[in-house]
Design brief:
The complex is a heterodimer of chains A (about 400) and B (about 100). By secondary structure, chain A is mainly α. Chain A contains 16 helices and 6 strands. In chain A, a hairpin with a 2-residue loop joins β5 and β6. The relative contact order of chain A is 0.12. The mean pLDDT of chain A is about 90. In chain B, α2 packs antiparallel against α4. Chain B is flat and about 65 Å long. The chains are: A mainly alpha (about 400), B mainly alpha (about 100).
């Protein structure tokens, strides 16, 4: 059939006249748009969630390769003098920490792939130990966190997150080359916790955050289980603070900040800190971290057309905000970082429905794409991809 | 003599829209392809940036990155959530358009 005949016939194609009435045409058009929007995207965006939950090797390894590439490329250097430089160094540290956790979890779950991923995990730990990664903490404290291990100051963020990666490395590699440093940092953190008047270590001078102390405690409990060291003098009291003193009784969420001078809350109870704390504590124990995740799930989680998300403040709270470095930018109160960290909690505590709904949102916002033998969340960058690997391969280390 | 009342802008826009010929199947498909091509090109470009770090960093650079991220997110919302239904709805409207003789 000649082309012009085909296009003419196509142009003349019409349904019977009965369908042309406006009260048939427009409701059907609206139904098509809404009906497909409510069903097709949730199926499309959630199709990898079950594979993550089943530890599908092809999917995990493809994403781990992206994280390896990010670790090898590093984070571009910026002068530390400006605010951008300070955060750039913090991102280097955070990216390396999440990459180390994610890659070590891959090594533990897929022992046959250790040769491929363990060197990159160790490279990420070496990056955390580098002078550049230490610089953001050293600039605020005016002392190097590793050179001052005998001193009294907190350094909770740098030492807590580093020690968690070192303890997990020791779990994956019993004869870890970081064992000595892991022991020294653990001893310093325990001594500082014992000396602390209110049981909280400062992240920066006069700034203390429960989430950073969750990294400290998670790393110590994991270290204790691996080495047999007894932390019973500090661990039970420290753990109790995460279920009583630092928890908002109305919502069950952790207060974002604590005043280190009087031990009282210095910030609202928020989902971003609570969701990350639940993930970090899970390396050492499961009861308190499970309660924190349950609070986040019950009081902050919601969904729209099957796409799950977390509100930064608990549902019904009058608190508002535009977001910060911890929560990310809040759009209608939704926290991007809390939503991402809750993926880890949902996986750890076997809340499959929540994991699938949160993963749909991660798929929608993260734009996963296949690049050769890798799978990358294109809007995540090195930090987002490292966080996604750590969350989507999270496993309970505590018995 | 009474001057004719001026039509409001929305009535003029509606009449202009009515006067336009119905879009062809080719045009509907082309517009959908352009939206998907734009989405693909934007995701290709964003893969080369560390967008999340920039969005989380306070300051003017962070705000610019946030605008870029929200713009891309809006495009992605349209592409994933609305575009399939939008395409089918336009096909439906094309197939059920009024006949010239019935106007």
């Amino acid at each position: 059939m000649p082309r012009h005949v085909f296009t003419r016939r196509l142009a003349a194609l019409r349904l019977p006249e009965n369908y042309s009435r406006w009260w048939v045409r427009w409701p059907v058009a609206t139904f098509l748009i809404l009906g497909l929007a409510m069903t097709l995207p949730r199926a499309w965006c959630g199709r990898d969630a079950a594979r993550w939950l089943a530890n599908d090797e092809a999917l995990v390894l493809a994403h781990a390769r992206t994280v390896v590439a990010g670790v090898e490329a590093g984070v571009p250097a910026e002068p530390l003098s400006g605010p951008a430089g300070f955060f750039q160094n913090e991102w280097l540290f955070g990216t390396s920490q999440m990459a180390a956790l994610g890659l070590l979890q891959v090594c533990i779950q897929h022992p046959g792939r250790r040769d491929e991923f363990l060197p990159a995990a160790e490279h990420a730990i070496d990056q955390m130990l580098s002078e550049r990664a230490r610089a953001f903490d050293a600039a605020r404290w005016r002392e190097d966190p590793l050179a001052s291990l005998d001193g009294p100051r907190g350094h909770a963020a740098y030492l807590g997150y580093l020690n968690l990666a070192l303890s997990l490395h020791r779990r994956a590699v019993p004869d870890s080359r970081f064992a000595d440093l892991n022991d020294r940092i653990s001893a310093a953190l325990v001594r500082r916790l014992e000396a602390s008047r209110h049981g909280i270590l400062e992240t920066y001078p006069l700034e203390a955050y429960p989430v950073d102390n969750a990294a400290v405690l998670g790393s110590l409990l994991l270290h204790a289980r691996i080495t047999g060291v007894d932390y019973s003098a500090v661990a039970p009291a420290a753990l109790a603070r995460f279920s009583i003193a630092w928890v908002d009784p109305r919502s069950g969420l952790l207060f974002q900040a604590i005043n280190p001078r009087d031990g009282k809350p210095a910030g609202a109870a928020r989902a971003s800190g609570t969701a990350l704390a639940a993930f970090l504590l899970s390396y050492g124990e499961r009861t308190v971290s499970g309660a924190l995740f349950a609070a986040v799930r019950d009081r902050c989680a919601d969904s729209f057309w099957g796409f799950g998300y977390l509100n930064e403040y608990h549902i019904g709270s009058a608190a508002t905000g535009v977001g910060d470095i911890a929560a990310g930018p809040l759009i209608f109160g939704v926290s991007p970082t809390a939503t991402g960290f809750a993926l880890g909690g949902a996986r750890l505590f076997d809340d499959r429905r929540r994991f699938v709904s949160l993963y749909r949102t991660a798929h929608l916002a993260g734009t996963p794409s296949k690049r050769g033998d890798r799978r990358v969340f294109v809007t995540g960058g090195p930090l987002g991809n490292a966080i996604m690997l750590a969350m989507c391969t999270a496993r309970l280390e505590a018995p | 003599m009474k001057t004719p009342a001026r039509k409001p802008w929305w009535q003029k826009a509606y009449e202009r829209r009515l006067a336009q010929p119905a879009p062809t199947l080719g045009r509907i498909a082309l517009e959908l392809a352009v939206v998907y091509a734009l989405h693909f090109a934007a995701s290709f470009a964003l893969a080369r940036l560390s967008l999340l770090e920039a969005v989380l960093t306070p300051g003017p650079g962070g705000r610019l990155a946030l605008v870029a991220a929200l713009g891309f997110f809006a495009l992605r919302l349209f592409v994933l959530l609305l575009a399939p239904g939008w395409f089918l709805a336009r096909l439906w409207l094309l197939l059920t358009r009024e006949r010239p003789e019935s106007r």
